[in-house]
């Protein structure tokens, strides 16, 4: 049985569906992220597919309590597994999947690795999962007009993953950020992340001036909270690593740069040092 997915009412016919803030496991079915649902007159649009086929089934069960409409479109906001790995479940039901070209390239490049890791973490709960990529791709911007809604997709720059995309509802001023924003837990800088471009992607979200922001991890929130938990964390880390490099510091010492102002974030102890080393490796060559 999947651990509970928490539903947040965001606007009329718009919901955030928040998974647990923990590592992927057989109980959460890989759904350790925040998803979105947008109801239209002709069907529902799902923001991110789920972390496994069984994870998609768990999402579908929640969706059925919110709307009678079928899911007609799925938007992948990036290349992390829970954003896309269950696409085939929705395609089998007739949904059209949309993603940035950079996201699809990243998904294809990392699919084998992601499936291997998920197999270890989920075990039998991964059964039936067969990653499939998007039906419609775009370079930087795409507008989905369906059922009386205009849904804008913006991929301004790579962030946590190369294809990270924000989903913007201009009428409601609601943005689903995918992994451009983490709230309440520390973000993760991976080898495919770009901490400099990540700040550019965040600036593009800021420029939208949203009333409600739905992060890739955490509950629906405000831009101010997102600025504190994501933008300010990244800016501080890059500033401290830059000073460390200028002082002749090495990657071993990078883990000691001061990130204590953000120790309130969940998983800080597990990820802060790793993030420092990843940013050091990138900034050495900037």
Oligomer: single chain
Sheet with the most strands: spatial strand order? 1-2-3-4-5-6-7
Overall pLDDT score = 97
Secondary-structure element order, N to C: EEEEHEHHEHEEEEEHEHHH
CATH topology: Metallo-beta-lactamase, Chain A
Overall geometry:
globular
What proportion strand? 15-25%
Report on this model:
With 286 residues, the protein is α/β, with parallel strands linked by helices. It has one domain: Metallo-beta-lactamase, Chain A, CATH 3.60.15.10. It contains eight helices and twelve strands. The strands form two sheets. The protein has a seven-stranded mixed sheet with strand order 1-2-3-4-5-6-7. α5 (195-208) links the parallel β11 and β12 (212-217). It starts with 5 loop residues before the first strand and ends with a helix. The model has no long low-confidence stretch (mean pLDDT 97). Keywords: Hydrolase.
Question: Tags for this entry?
Answer:
five-stranded mixed beta sheet; hydrolase; 286 residues; alpha/beta; hydrolase activity; 8 helices; seven-stranded mixed beta sheet; 35% helix; globular; Metallo-B-lactamas; 12 strands; Metallo-beta-lactamase, Chain A
List the helices and strands and how they pair.
Elements: E1 6-11, E2 14-18, E3 34-39, E4 44-47, H1 53-63, E5 71-75, H2 81-84, H3 87-92, E6 96-100, H4 101-122, E7 136-138, E8 141-146, E9 149-154, E10 166-169, E11 174-182, H5 195-208, E12 212-217, H6 223-246, H7 251-254, H8 268-283
Parallel strand pairs: 4-5, 5-6, 6-7, 11-12
Antiparallel strand pairs: 1-2, 2-3, 3-4, 8-9, 9-10, 10-11
Helix pairs in contact: 5-6, 6-8
